[in-house]
Each structure stands twice: as C-alpha cells, then as structure tokens.
Design brief:
The chain is of the alpha/beta class. The chain has eight helices and twelve strands. It is 46% helix and 22% strand. Helix 1 crosses helix 7, helix 2 crosses helix 7 and helix 6 packs parallel to helix 8. The longest helix has 43 residues. The protein is globular, with a radius of gyration of 24 Å. It starts with a helix and ends with a helix. Bound molecules: arginine. Arginine (ARG) binds next to loops.
C-alpha cells in the first residue's frame, strides 16, 4: 500500500511535469504568435505608426514640395527602421492621448511620438530600449520671466500640460499649489500662454526650445523641475509584439551606435527653427 502511494506520488509528479511541459508549449505557441507580428508587417509591406505631430523637433508638420508633410527626428528614425525592414510607413496623426489608446487596442503597429517609457505605461504596452533622455522645462511669456522664477511663484496660477502626457503628472506632483490645465494639442497650449489664459507650460527640453525659437514673445523660465528615471523616449508597441520589439532593439542599437539619433535631432532642430523665420 505504501509503495502504491509512493508510486502514485511519483506518477502524479510526472503528470504535473507533463502539465508544466504543455504549459511551456503554450508559451512557445504564444511567442510563435508574436513572431507572426513582424512577419505580418513584412507581408503587408506597411508599418502603421501612430504619432502626435505637435512635437518639434521629433514630429511636426512642414511643407515639402508644396505638400503638408510630417517630419522630425522620430520620422527619420522610423524611416531608417522601415528601410531596414523593407516596408513603407503609414502615419496616423492624432492627439497624443487617443494615439496611446489606439495603440493599446492594437490598431497601430507602433507609437513613435517622444513617448516616455514609464512603469505605469508598461502595464499596458511594450517598449523598446530608450533612444533619447529628455529634461523638463517650463515655458512662460517673456514679460513674465522675472515674475516666475520658481515653482512657488506659480502658486494659484494655471500651468498647462498635454493631455495624457507625463507632464500632467509632473504638474500635479511638483506644482502642487498651481492649477493643472490639460489640453490635447501642444500648439493650443502655446497659444494660451501667449494670450495669458494660462501662465506656464511644462514641455520637454527640445520641444520647449523649438516653441520658444518660433515665438519671440515666449521664453524658458529659470525653474527647476525634477526629472525621474522613466521619462526617456522609447517606441511603444501593443502587447504581444515581442518579436517586433526584439528586431527594433537591434535596429535602435545600430542607429544609436552610429550616432544617428543625435544627428536626426540636430538636423530637425535646425529645420523646425528655420520654419519660424
Ligand atoms: N514624453 C511625454 C510623454 O510621453 C510627452 C510626449 C508627447 N508627445 C507628442 N508627440 N506630443 O508623456
């Protein structure tokens, strides 16, 4: 009897192992399914990319040969990726917040929009390795530069941030005595600062510099905003795109190694600033 129990325990163990084995097989088939993602994109010949093209020098509109075109450092990066994959790019330009939602629903292959790879977003989407580390800046009217010299000076004032962006969280966490104003598109926020309906606007370094270069009545305030580790930009992917993620990381490593990203940022900063003249 004792022997029987022993054997049944052992057999049970084997059965459990077998169950684990089949669990592992399920794992393989799901990764096979995600291997299908890259193959599917190559087969379609099109990479569907979501962005919010209000973000110079990373993505913005300009006239190219008389045609309204989305350009920028992110666009150059995506073009390099598409070339590597042998596919065309199909851009979808919306507000930032709905773009992230659309990506999570799997309507886009990827989101490239200066997207910060935060821990919170990692719950709902995949990210590649980071490709750019920004800092935070505060944009104010030039006339108010002497007035707004630190976070405390903005107490009781309205501080803008793009809807769905990490800047909303920064205003809530750090500008605790100010009132957050969330708006979908950055140019609308810029107009509000110019008109004085909001007092300040939190943007990342290059973007703040671009808007200031394009608007002589705006300036970068001398206000220190604390940055956190997870503000760096990465490409966002819907969950289940692990194979695409791996391929993109290889391409990004190569582009970074060749200093291409810096080159794209520099080139497009000049292009965005030129537009203002
Ligand atoms: N990096 C910030 C974030 O991920 C802002 C990104 C906004 N991007 C844009 N293209 N408007 O929340």
């Amino acid at each position: 009897m004792k022997k029987f129990i022993k054997w049944s325990v052992i057999l049970g163990g084997v059965f459990l192992l077998g169950a684990c084995g089949s669990g592992a097989t399920t794992g393989t088939s799901s990764s096979q399914k995600s291997e299908g993602k890259l193959a599917a994109i190559k087969k379609a010949g099109v990479l569907k990319v979501g962005t919010s093209a209000d973000f110079p020098p990373f993505e913005f509109h300009t006239m190219v040969d008389g045609k309204d075109t989305i350009v920028g450092a992110d666009v150059d990066m995506v073009n390099a990726i598409a070339e590597e994959l042998g596919v065309k790019v199909q851009w979808s330009d919306t507000e930032f917040d709905p773009m992230l939602a659309s990506l999570q629903q799997g309507n886009l292959d990827m989101g490239v929009s200066g997207i910060s790879a935060t821990e919170e977003r990692k719950q709902n989407m995949l990210f590649t390795d980071n490709y750019y580390a920004p800092k935070q800046n505060v944009v104010v009217k030039k006339d108010n530069l002497d007035k707004y010299t630190n976070i405390a000076s903005l107490a009781g004032k309205k501080v803008g941030a793009q809807k769905g962006s990490i800047q909303e969280g920064i205003v809530k966490d750090q500008f605790t005595d100010s009132q957050l104003v969330s708006v979908g598109k950055i140019p609308s926020l810029v107009v509000e600062v110019k008109q004085g309906s909001i007092d300040a606007l939190v943007l990342e370094d290059k973007i703040a510099e671009s808007y200031v270069a394009q608007n002589a009545d705006l300036a970068l305030a001398d206000i220190e905003v604390t940055s956190s580790d997870d503000e760096s930009y990465a490409i966002a992917l819907p969950k289940g795109s692990e194979d695409l993620q791996a391929e993109l990381n290889k391409i990004l490593a190569k582009l970074t190694e060749e200093d291409k990203i810096d080159e794209f940022v520099e080139k497009n900063t000049a292009l965005a600033n030129e537009q203002a003249k």
